[in-house]
Amino acid sequence: MREVVDAGAGSRAAGARPLRRDAELNRRRIVGAGREVFAVRGLKATLNDVAHHAGLGVGTVYRKFADKEALAEAVFAEELDEIASMAGDALEGADAFAALAGFLERALARAAGNRGLRELMRHGEFGGGALVAARQVIAERCAELVARAHAQGALRDGVTGADVAPIAAMVDAVMALPGGEGAGLWRRYLLIILDGLRAHPTERTPLPE
């Protein structure tokens, strides 16, 4: 009898593992769909929109995420973690000013193609713990990038890590120009700002038209 009971328990455990795998696969599918939907439609997109894009029933989405805010936090915590990784990679660069400029260009290029991310950074609708933690890491790494540029004498006096977010917001304002004009202009204004940050701008960066 013991053998029969044990075999049954083993069978149930074996059955549970595929269920757990399926549940995790569904979660990843929902987060991936959320990332794509929020990027195109912004934060006004609904869980129904995400479920349709994922090819899942809306009930499946609600079982994983209680509301849109919970899904958005999962999606954008990943986005911000990846931006934090960009900042970490930039800290490995030998030329500190180029590293700072390169990070800003890469991070803003990512935001340019992601309406939801830009809305999140501009308005801060969601503020869950994962987002707060990711923002803190980004802020700390930006402060390190700025400190390194100062140490190499490449950054003008008075600029601090706290200036990075407002600089990004200024460029975001260009991205948000009506009619999609900003899509082709934001790099031009980023270069103008970067030239203004140089300690000794002996040669101006050529600007795109």
TrEMBL record:
UniProt keyword terms in alphabetical order: DNA-binding, Transcription, Transcription regulation
PROSITE patterns: HTH_TETR_2
UniProt DNA-binding region: 46-65
Listed InterPro entries: Homeodomain-like_sf, HTH-type_TetR-like_transc_reg, HTH_TetR, Tet_transcr_reg_TetR-rel_C_sf, TetR_SbtR-like_C
GO molecular function, one term: transcription cis-regulatory region binding
Superkingdom per UniProt: Bacteria
Signal peptide: none
Domain HTH tetR-type: 24-83
Protein name in the entry: HTH tetR-type domain-containing protein
Taxonomic path: Bacteria, Bacillati, Actinomycetota, Actinomycetes, Kitasatosporales
